Amino acid sequence: MDQAVLRERRAARKRQVRRRRQVGLGGVLVVLLGLGAVLASAGDDPPRRSTASPMPPATRTAVPVAKAPIHPPAALTRPAALPGSHRAAHEAVPILMYHVIGTRGTLTTNPGLWVAAADFAAQVQALRHAGFHAVTLQDVWDAWHRKGKLPSKPIVLSFDDGYLGHVRDAMPTLAAAGWPGVLNLKVDSLADMGGRKAVRRLIAAGWEIDAHTISHPDLTTLGAQRLHEEVAGSRSRLRRLLGVAVSFFCYPSGRYDATVIAAVKAAGYLGATTTRTGWASPAGSPFELSRVRVDGGMSPDDVLKRVHDARTAVQAAAT
User: Fold this and answer.
1) FRET partner for 244 with CA separation of 20 to 30 A, picked from 42, 44, 128, 196?
2) Over residues 298-310, mean pLDDT
């Protein structure tokens, strides 16, 4: 074979080998560059939602009920921030006593316990115009015993038993005024109110929850064991269910005697409210705090007059 042809063939094979090597190196470079880009962008991608099936309910860890007291939201106006706030070491305070808020039915056996939602709203408005500011019973206690402060004209709005209208009607009305309420809750009424979730809405709105026994019996007729269950047991159950302090007690139908008072003290309450007419005062027994009853059909002026008359009666009795 001609030497020139051989040399040309050898040169062609060398060029072919060089081209293959170049193509191979280029492919490796492309792969490396692509891998680098993927790694560089991995930190910028949002995490992908897991496609795994959810944990079955039986293996989930239960969330324990809060044991610490639930405090009112910071947005709620507290007594010390209100105009005219001051120490009230010896100041008597009116505590209004409400029961059902709502429209009573035709078969209602005790119509005096029912206050229409519109009437209640008008009463709150009249109290505001008269200069009153609602506080909790704990606020009053702190002013009397712990150097706390109260507004210039404090008033407590208490609601006995526990009814749906307390959440549906009373809470929005008081929230619009920036006022808290005090619910004297009978444990057996939880279901009627909508359960713990409904009561927690009241707590979140700044309401105080106090005990009103489990089943609302006449406490003066009970034996020692049943009395302990209704008084101490209602407090422990509400604290466990709602995670609140439950520092005060309310006697069902205002029925109490020395034995009942002793049971309330032994259960750890700070005080108790009655159905006796008058203003609550630190000069009397903390376990016999008076209230001012609000009946169905009362006008705003009727409520203001009853509040005024209750104080006048107490002042007259003290002289």
Assistant:
1) 128
2) 98
Cβ atoms of 135 and 180 within 8 Å: the answer is yes
Q: Rounded CA gap, 26 and 32, in Å? A: 10
The range of the structural domain enclosing residue 165 comes to 90-318
Residue 60 pLDDT exceeds 60: no
- The partner residues of 23 in beta bridges, in order of sequence, read none
Give yes or no for a contact between 165 and 195, defined as CB atoms under 8 angstroms apart: no
Q: Are strands 86-87 and 149-150 parallel, antiparallel or unpaired?
A: antiparallel
State how many domains the chain has: 1
Q: Which two tokens stand for residue 169?
A: 């009607």
What's the CATH number where 147 sits? Answer: 3.20.20.370
d(CA 122, CA 284): 32
| Contact (CB, 8 A) for 98 and 170 | yes
Q: What is the pTM of this model?
A: 0.76
In tens, the pLDDT along 169-209 reads 999 999 999 999 999 999 999 999 999 999 999 999 999 99
Q: From the CA atom positions of the chain, what is the Rg in Å?
A: 36
Residues of the chain above pLDDT 70, percent:
72
Strand locations in 117-266, DSSP E?
133-134, 149-150, 154-161, 182-185, 208-211, 248-250
100 strand-pairing partners: 114
- Long-range Cβ contacts of 107-111 (<8 Å, 24+ apart): 111/296, 111/297
The answer to the question of residue 80 being in a domain is no
Listed range (2-6, 116-120, 129-133) with the worst mean pLDDT: 2-6
Does residue 156 belong to any structural domain of this protein?
Answer: yes
Cα dihedral 22/25/26/30 (nearest 10):
180
